[in-house]
Task: structure prediction
Amino acid sequence: MSAAVIVYPGSNCDRDCKVAVERSTGEQVSMVWHDETELPADLDLIVIPGGFSYGDYLRCGAMAAQSAIMPAIKKAAEQGVTIVGICNGFQILCEAGLLPGALLRNQNLKYICKPISLQVANPNTRFTKLYGEQSEVIMTQGNGDGNYFADEETLKRIEDNGQVVFRYVDNPNGSVNNIAGIMNEAGNVIGMMPHPDRAFEAELGSADGATLFQSIYASL
Result:
């Protein structure tokens, strides 16, 4: 598998994502600076990591969505390359129009950082296929703007299409329909607020995040 992590000024989970993918799959991961205009050839996976890209000025992810590398990411998405946006990466994908909806301030207006239980809402995706009979997983939440919102028409469409991949068991931030992660209609782009990159080995409290990366690997 050929994989790359995009690095923005203010990213703080880029190394976490690199290590998580490498240890979960045994494959090497490239790092791509946001100011590049081309991605490595023949990528199978692009990870947009968490953090505070551009200091979260304007809206979270709004400036990163205009970065030089974004046209190449959009082209890769159109070509069916798997793209995973985690936390700030989810915000970036929404701001770039690669996923519907938006991430608002948490309902309690507080930063949330803790292990969190998720329901695997759609086990039949390239991101969840190896969870099998495991309907509940544990990953780590770490955000202040993780409150997912979409208008009623958009919400109905993503629900009807099975685009909700993960839901919160105990909603920490007010996200509509307990949504923790969604994918695009084509099924190759996912955005999620919880961090699989902080839950890929038992020593971290959970290895459930590794299964997500392994599911992607197994889908190639």
Summary: The mean pLDDT is 97. DSSP finds five helices and eleven strands in the chain.
